[in-house]
Amino acid sequence: MAVVGGLCLLVAAVAAAWISTASATSLLSEKTGRSQKPINCMPCSRTYIGDAYADAFTDQLAEHRGLVGMSDSGELCKGLTDDVEVPTLSELHWQLVGEGSHRRLVYSMKFGACQDAMINFLGGYDAHLVIIEKLPNGVFADPYELQHFVERKVFLDVAVFGDTNLELPSVLSNRSAVEIHFDLRPSTLSNSNLVVDLPLHARYPPLNASGYTTIEFGSPDLFLRYRKKEIHSSSCLWVLKNLEAAPAEKAAWRIPCGNEAHIGFVSSITFLSAVVCSMSIVLATLIF
């Protein structure tokens, strides 16, 4: 009986070990499959990546939602990424430049590939850098101003999603996002370095006892969009690579705002000024 009991325990232990190994192998295969997921692709007829962000501007903005929503099918990318040495982003820095309510968000980027590798890649592919900046509430980008950048060929294309009403104050406005397409060419790169400027404007902030409102910018979404040159329009596809590089520092904007303690004084002065001006106009009309 002792021998039979020992054999039963041995069989149970072997079965448990086999089940554990199979589960681990299955989990590893699943994780490997996820990590080897093909790069996303999109038809050339689709102009903007940020279309997927258009309905995402709620109180809880989903991070990197656009890349999930825009992938049509993994089958689209078959054969498009084989034996292609795609440039990677090694450094990303940004800072706010300027004073007052009109400033520029300046991106400084460095690609990991050497200059010769970049030239070889750009020689066989049309490549665009796509920047999607999700603006915090209280800051907006002027679509008309950005279109002038396109007309001057500073940007290849640009679009603003979300709240584009430029007259609304901060408390009545919603968030927005800017998508910039920058044409990558050897002439636009200096030793694999690239600098891009985005002009921004502050909305009228709510009252604050400190006299300032601080707005912080999150990390932008950066993509490399490329396709082979001289391809048929019917089979044209953009390959999208997510350039995952976190900025080294945060960008913060301190915007001056009204002090709530001064409401009574300012309202009284404004009212008296309006009354005096109105009376002056009436008297001038009666006299002359």
TrEMBL record:
GO BP terms, alphabetized: GPI anchor biosynthetic process
Secretion signal span: 1-24
Gene Ontology cellular component terms for the protein in this record: endoplasmic reticulum membrane
Pfam families assigned: PIG-X
Keyword Secreted: no
Location(s), subcellular: Endoplasmic reticulum membrane
Chief localisation class: endoplasmic reticulum
Listed pathway(s): Glycolipid biosynthesis; glycosylphosphatidylinositol-anchor biosynthesis
Cited InterPro entries: PIG-X/PBN1, PIGX
Transmembrane segments: 263-287
Membrane topology: Single-pass membrane protein
Coiled-coil zones: none
Record's keyword terms, sorted: Endoplasmic reticulum, Glycoprotein, GPI-anchor biosynthesis, Membrane, Signal, Transmembrane, Transmembrane helix
Family label: Belongs to the PIGX family.
Alphabetized PANTHER family for the sequence: PHOSPHATIDYLINOSITOL-GLYCAN BIOSYNTHESIS CLASS X PROTEIN
Name of the featured protein: Phosphatidylinositol-glycan biosynthesis class X protein
